[in-house]
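We now fix the convention by which a protein and its fold are recorded. The integers have meaning only within a learned vocabulary of local backbone shapes. The record below shows the convention in full.
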Amino acid sequence: MLSSHRLLRRFLCTASSSSTSSCPKPWLFIGLGNPGEKYQSTRHNVGFDMIDAFARSQLIPMTTVHCKALFGEGMVGGTPVLLAKPQTYMNLSGESMYDDMDLSCGVLRIQPKGGHGRHKGMKSVIYHFRGNREFGRLRIGIGRPPGQMDPKAFLLQKFNRTARERIDSALQEGVEILKTLVAKGLTECARSANMEQKYKHLRLQTLQE
């Protein structure tokens, strides 16, 4: 089994050999979720859904297993990209894009850095990065549980039709955000995407009132 560093080096060599010009620095996109049919299409796994949507849009097969994760590798506009879906459970994702209750369902937010915001998967990632929080993250809003519903039960539910439509639309928006990220960098991507998503958040709040 190749380590993540050897996998990345092998990919960079492949990318460089296919082009006469110097190869841009690669991007690694990791979607958080849980493996297994039990968790498919639930709120808990929108990070996996985001990776799958991006992989389909760029024709990147997710068929390689390395370091307890499913990997895909490809080129996006001449830039090498690695996609990963950790096959450890959410709270252990640091061993190897995530759902967020603090955002309305279907609203996205991209951040250059930050804390874990009580998200156990992100907390695990930061822990395994030895406390380093200097990495970008794409937050995918799933909304809050209704009434006194247990948040854990809410996370493990599938979306109703209206919420599913919002999430599917958000995933397509997320694909465009990630393409902008690769092309223009994190700062410019966050500036443009977050402004657009802010107005979307306000529209959804108005509909819910």
Notes: The mean pLDDT is 80.
